[in-house]
Amino acid sequence: MNEGVLPAEITKRNKARAIELGFSAMDVPKKYGGLELPLIEQVAVWEQLGRVTNALSWCFSEPQKWMFEACSDAQIEKYIMPMMHGELKDCYAITESGPGSDVSALEATATEDNGSYVLNGEKWYVTSANLADFFWFQARIPDENDEALFLVDQGTDGIEMIASPLFSHTYAAHHPTYRFADVAVPADRRVGEPGDGMAFTKSWFRHERLMIGARCCGAAARLIEEATAFAQERIVDGAPLSEKQAIQFMLADSASELWAARLMTFEAAAANDRGENVKAMHNRCSMVKLFVSEMANRVADRAVQIFGGRGYMRENVAERFFRELRVDRIWEGTSEIQRLIIARCLLKRGLDEM
Prior knowledge:
Blueprint: H1 8-21, H2 39-49, H3 53-57, H4 65-70, H5 73-84, E1 90-93, E2 109-113, E3 116-123, E4 134-141, E5 146-153, E6 159-163, E7 177-186, E8 190-191, H6 199-233, E9 235-236, E10 239-240, H7 245-273, H8 278-307, H9 317-324, H10 335-349
């Protein structure tokens, strides 16, 4: 009703409470003052946060373990630690208009020039950029025939926001389009070493895809609970709606699919905690993202149907989740990209090794 924007005092309160609870330190190594929670515990947290979708749970920055492996001590001090303390917020400038979800075909470039890098390219769907202090900018380095991430401060000369489209969901965090034209950054803003290529971006994708699965599980559980409660209270032809077999079938399918989704999400997290093969983990996170995001969308569709006309009203939980869950089948790699990853893994590794 308010374009996703909460009153400033509530936003401030939510952020402070999230940091107090340790949400911004979940994946941070203990040596840096973080909680270093096993991934299975982080999934449990994000599952609960998913009950309110990203519209409300995106109230804190989330430094991830790979950042402490990828970044230099100076980068950690300047960018990553302030994220944990709630002093800075980041955003990812990776997706482009042409390659879309295929990050292996990025066109943005970084060219070395007298101790600096000059960045050029257009980035789409830079989520949270309107609230962020710096970008993770992914670019090709033609001289090395490789890719790398760069830390770029918001407001650096040559960065221009050229569009900020409206989307189906209403989040305070927007998804603008940015043009980087001859943006000069010091060489020490490059993340990682030559040869690291897409390794850290893939780490980010694995984490995000798994947590999308976790949030979708929470959202589906919320919808099932809300639809069940409504069906038990709504009287049709002198009996509760929940006694209608058609409604029972929708609720039964939703509960069964949620159980399957939770099992695969938590098992994928446990496999990561066991230290299983990273390529197999990349595949499993894609499986989670594919299956669980599509499951949540089916549950949301059924919930709208169970609520009937009420479910199509903006004030109804089913209507909001129906809009807000749809993007989970698109960002961090579309369902179709996930299917390609899964199929390639099957063909290369075989069923038992994937």
